[in-house]
Amino acid sequence: MKAIVLSRRDFRESDQIISLYTKEKGKLELLARGVKKITSKNSAHLEPFSLVDIDIAYGKEFNHLTKVQPIEYFKNIRKDLEKSLVAQHIISITNKLTQPNEQDERIFNILKSWLQFTNLPVFQSSNFSLSDGYIVVLLHCLGFAITEDEKMKKWINELEILEGGNWEAINELEYNPELHRQIYQFLVYQTEKKVLDWAKLA
Question: Of 78, 156, 184, 198, which one has the fewest beta carbons inside 10 Å?
Answer without folding.
Answer: 156
